[in-house]
Give the backbone structure.
Amino acid sequence: MGMTIVQKILARAAGRSEVAVGEVVEPAVDLAMSHENGALVMNQFFEVFKGTGLEPTVWDPSKIAIILDHRVPAESAKTATNQKKIREFVAKQGITKFHDIRGDQGGICHQILPEHGYTRPGQVIVGTDSHTTSHGAVGAFSFGIGATEMAGVWALGRIFNVEVPATIKVVVNGVLPEGVLPKDLILHLIGSISAEGANFQVIEFHGRGVTSMPLSGRLTICNMSVEAGATSGIVPADAETERYLREEAGVTDPLDMVAPDADAEYSRVIEIDAASLAPQIACPHTVDRVRPVDQVAGVKVHQIVIGSCTNGRLDDLEVAARILKGRRVANGVRMLIFPASWRIYREALRRGMLAELVDAGAVVMNPGCGCCLGVHQGALGDGEVALSTTNRNFKGRMGNPNAEVYLCSPAVAAASALTGVITDPR
Amino acid sequence: MAQVVLTLADDISTDVIYPGRFMATVLPSETPQFAFADYEINARLKSGQIAPGSAIVAGANFGCGSSREQAASTLKGHELIVVAKGFARIFLQNSANLGLRTIICPDIEASVGDELEFTPAEVVNKTTGKRFEIVPLPKARQDIIDAGGLIAYTRKRLLEARGAA
Ligand code: SF4
């Protein structure tokens, strides 16, 4: 029987020759990621050890990654204290993949992991963050879990009760036209299958539209697979995966280039014609209310946001800088940019992009989650509208339930910054 | 018998259940104060006007979005029962792990004030007299619930793996 890529990865990690969809397995975990919610994981981890007489030590400190990104620098005493506890825990346990709030190492977890070569094809990766789906971009099976589950992983190195998911195969035929970006592709897919269209399933991406896409774009589409409910998105590792990991992430070890079998069984096959896609917008307050940009063009916006684990990478900033260079952000519009990591920030600085953006009137914030989740920077006022390259537009997401968030690509965001209304960048 | 105290549409996200701005509060003992923080029901929950064992009835994809476990612990803290047409994966898992009672009932029809009764196979709306089939939880999740939650389950597994002290 042929297996999907996720079946193959799970079979290996569970020490089996094959696994069937629906079976329950306990795979060994290759990488376990947390961020500030590591503070809750720690609490649950100590709870697990209570009364056992055992010393609370993690199973393998080299396989745990903790990245401080959600509220950096800390916005409150409470957050600062949580971060302090995490630093102490990391030092005590000898956790090496720790990224603090520093210009030489920090950033958003879903950028730091691939950027430093922590994520590899064929791995089982879990993270206490729903967008852990991102790391399917390198050909890993990577999914979000809760803090108590993570406490179990820290203790035992396994994730319990994983039902082998069914897989939806998405084939993107052709290549994306000029001005249409990976974000538009994934928004289109979410809009067409709905916010629960892939619930409990994995999305495996194929076709020239994906093989021709740089790894940064693959991170974008896998990142947002969870917005269709998917357990994970995954792109089979290929030459681009290898290029990225070798050249950009500096990985020198052998890679396990696992691929699905030709006769793998899929729950559904969806074909998308890349050439026919236009820029897309997700309208408030669900990510699947997706419309082509011309149907919402002209909506007035107050805040434009470019950044996040979805679209805060160098090529995203480059798209924005190209559009904004020598021009000015419209009056009455605040434009906030938060690069996904300090490595990206430094490179954008070196190439002059940050200066072009700031000259145009944008505010470049420190790398991190910024205003994406509505706790820290860039909250919206009552009745205000944001147009953002982030991944969620739920009511209240940007800190105010009486405001609206539209989601788009960096090209749409930058073009709209110039006009103050939602604008087609083409 | 559980009284319905709130009915909700499809796709209720964890940002609605437990807004991101309260995420620095992590302990299950402290999260209940922020349940549905931006909505009117929050005040009634906090002032104890809603009895433990009351029910929320929601549409499809309840708990979509963030993996934040606070969304489950905040409802568990009030001992609410969530009956939904469907749940998002991580929320459903977090609920099993923390002991929040979730019932998957794809055809559920109920209004605020209705009294619900749960049998192993059905939700019975005593107010309207209608009965609705329940989709059983996957066995793997039921095992965790039966063990008294994931902490207890993991502790047992830890002792097996590292040997009793
Ligand atoms: S940028 Fe937003 S979506 Fe991404 S990890 Fe941070 S809070 Fe989550």
Chain A has a mean pLDDT of 97.
